[in-house]
Design a protein that fits this description.
With about 80 residues, the protein is mainly beta. It is built from no helices and seven strands.
């Protein structure tokens, strides 16, 4: 669990891992959001090592799905 300062000043920043957050005066916002890598795959089975945001078109049923990495699930688009 991330621990943010209790009484930040506007424009204060904190870095956790490779993401920096900035206090906008009301809430913490991601300051430098990494650019996500997305892959598009067409096949009858899902990719074996999907990443957050990947798109898979299931050719068996002709439907597209997007991968949600934190939940480890494919959702229909």
């Amino acid at each position: 669990m991330a621990i943010f300062p209790n009484n930040p000043s506007t424009d204060d920043q904190i870095t956790l891992g490779d993401i920096t957050y900035s206090w906008n005066g009301t809430a913490w916002e991601i300051y430098n959001k990494p650019i996500p890598r997305q892959t598009y795959v067409e096949s009858s089975s899902p990719p074996s090592s999907p990443q957050e945001g990947d798109v898979w078109k299931n050719t068996s049923i002709e439907k597209k799905f997007k991968y949600l990495g934190q939940e480890n699930v494919w959702i229909e688009r």
